[in-house]
Fold this protein.
Amino acid sequence: MSDGFVGYRSQLVETLQGKGVRDMSVLRAIATIPRHLFVPESLRHRAYEDIALPIGSGQTISQPYVQARSCELVKLTGRERVLEIGTGSGYQTALLAMLAETVFSVERVADLARHAHDVIRGLDLPNITIMHNDGTLGWKPSAPYDAIIVAAASPGIPQPLVAQLAPGGRMVIPVGSQAEQVLTLVTKHMEDEAYDETAVHDVRFVPLLGEFGFAEAG
Ligand code: SAH
């Protein structure tokens, strides 16, 4: 995309490479997707720093490094069906759309889902569907998924998400308390519903609220 931000995106790519991101298709997606369009206008000048930023409704666009690592961990080749829980700004949804065949993304805050949909409509990414729903239930109509990325902190691994993962499928999910979590890679076995868990990285995400997440206040 040729806009005034190409140089900033290249710098972000270099920063992420410096932190150990190696997957060239992920780095290419970071170099292409205009992150500044996914943050509030008043924060555009900070859009290419490797930091989380507020996006309204008490939510944040996640740190690019964590998003790039998450994309890298689920090992996408361009042929996968992917489910994302927590659309938020829609930035990671856009990255995933460049890395997989189809992306389904579920967001529980209606305003955010609508806004992400509007931003993505302005880009050439026809393989994205955004839904407004409780993502802890997954999205059964389009299951199974080769990969699932959960972009909010979960007290555990929601059973519906494991059930909707294809045999051999991969899921990245921050698991822990509301204050701190461990980014966890879940790999489902080929032959049954069992899965392996690998701890990857300490992280801090906003909470996953819903039936199989943290209880909603009030
Ligand atoms: N990848 C997004 C991250 C947004 S923060 C981005 O970079 O912009 C996490 C998002 O998860 C928030 O928008 C929050 O509203 C959403 N969320 C929390 N609980 C959810 C649930 N049960 N289902 C779907 N989305 C949820």
About this structure: The beta strands are 53-56, 59-61, 81-85, 102-107, 128-132, 145-150, 165-176, 181-188, 195-203. The first strand starts at residue 53 and ends at 56. The longest helix spans residues 6-18.
